[in-house]
Amino acid sequence: MHSHFKEVNLPERKKIVLIAHDNKKRELLEWAVKYRDELSKHKLFATGTTGKLLERETGLKVTCFESGPLGGDMQAGAYIADGKLDLVLFFWDPLAAQPHDPDVRALLRVAVVWNVPLACNRSSADFLISSPYFSGKYTKKVTDFTVYKNRKNS
To answer: What's this model's pTM, rounded to 2 decimal places?
Structure first.
């Protein structure tokens, strides 16, 4: 199948979701405190507990979804599919079984489908936040799914 792309312009002020599994929350909080000034330039979202902790530790306003096991990962995924999130910082724990693993996989998958920058650990988050695109304008290419969406059910 031949893919066509469309360009999507990301503004300087990004809509960023921050998510962390229990064993990674402290690491994400330390990272967010370190980069508080940079994060303050953006609109922040997070899953339940992580969002409340981020607000308390950084003093920044965070729009909270439900917690991950209660559907927060799925809410974030829906926001991505609707073009309402520009960046995903998800410190996930690959060594701990999660009751909502299918939701986590779906979130990671939809981020890749829509070509959303995604950091799954501190090193990747450091690379993303140090990029000139983090707080600058960026034009990304996204697969144009119009043909897929408009096909007849057969």
So the answer is: 0.90
